[in-house]
């Protein structure tokens, strides 16, 4: 069992991590955003959502031009440290190449349903802010297309050449534990095994 001092030292080292790149993938409701924010807070790593590179949040349903999206994405991917969360797109392949770890979050589909519905209710009644206006049409799309229709095989195929750094996990806690367990490898830059 670790002493209190060992735990404090470990937390200090975790906050000082530099040069780590983490890619998080998962279906709607898998916990990608929550996990990205938690890792960012715990370890001081900048966190980015792919959706915010795609959508201009100042006007509803307006996408950024691809050239602007790509410039922002490349700026982030070429920085020394990042967490990028979002689904897989062909234009995001560079994030798989440069990532130290690729985490695929895959909780039970019904847990994801619950999270989607809970988020919808909280945003509709004003308890929680969301990136876009939640509608019933959008709720149905999130549940059916983006959750139950999520293509896990496609994710595995796209990331197949990165199996040495790709991990499929059920919970955010599993990911955080993995990062903590591999802290020495990450800090020493010894590579991923």
Task: Characterize the structure shown.
With 193 residues, this protein is of the alpha/beta class. The chain has 10 helices and 7 strands. The strands form 2 sheets. A 5-stranded parallel beta sheet has the order 2-5-1-6-7. Strands 3-4 form a two-stranded antiparallel ribbon. A hairpin with a 5-residue loop joins strand 3 and strand 4. Helix 6 packs antiparallel against helix 7. The longest helix is centred in the middle third of the chain and has 16 residues. The radius of gyration is 17 Å and the shape is globular. The two termini are 26 Å apart. The model has no long low-confidence stretch (mean pLDDT 84).
- The number of helical elements comes to 10
Q: Let me know the largest β-sheet.
A: 5 strands, parallel
Sheet with the most strands: spatial strand order: 2-5-1-6-7
β-strand amount: 5-15%
Write the element-wise H/E pattern from the N-terminal end onward. HEHEHEEHEHEHHHEHH
Structural class by SSE content: alpha/beta
How many DSSP E strands? Answer: 7
How far apart are the first and last residues' alpha carbons, in Å?
Answer: 26 Å
Helical proportion?
40-55%
Summarize the model shown.
This protein has 193 residues and is α/β, with parallel strands linked by helices. The protein has ten helices and seven strands.
């Amino acid at each position: 069992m670790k002493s209190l001092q060992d735990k404090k030292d470990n937390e200090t080292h975790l906050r000082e991590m530099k040069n780590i790149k983490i890619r998080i993938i998962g279906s709607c409701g898998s916990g990608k955003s929550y996990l990205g924010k938690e890792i960012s807070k715990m370890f001081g790593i900048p966190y980015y959502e792919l959706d915010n590179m795609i959508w201009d949040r100042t006007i509803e349903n307006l996408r950024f031009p691809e050239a602007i999206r790509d410039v922002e994405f490349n700026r982030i991917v070429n920085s020394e440290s990042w967490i990028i969360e979002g689904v897989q797109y062909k234009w995001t392949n560079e994030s798989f190449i440069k990532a130290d770890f690729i985490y695929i979050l895959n909780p039970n589909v019904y847990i994801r349903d619950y999270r989607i519905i809970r988020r919808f209710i909280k945003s509709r009644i004003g308890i929680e802010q969301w990136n876009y206006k939640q509608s019933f049409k959008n709720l149905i799309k999130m549940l059916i297309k983006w959750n139950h229709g999520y293509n896990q095989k496609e994710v595995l195929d796209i990331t197949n050449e990165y199996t040495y750094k790709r991990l499929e996990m059920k919970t955010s806690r599993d990911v955080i534990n993995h990062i903590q367990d591999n802290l020495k490898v990450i800090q020493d830059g010894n590579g991923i095994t």
